[in-house]
Amino acid sequence: MRKVLNGAIAQLPFPHQADLSELGVNADRVYRLLSLLRCAEEVSPLFVAPSLLLATRRPQQLGGPLSHVHSSQFHWPTEVTVETRDPSLSTRFIEIYQSASLLSATLRELAKTALNRKATVEQEIATIEDAIDERVYELIGLSLTVVRSQARRGKRPGRHRPDQASRPETWAGPTCEGPTFGLVRSRDG
Question: Domain coordinates of the chain in residue numbers?
Answer without folding.
Answer: 19-152
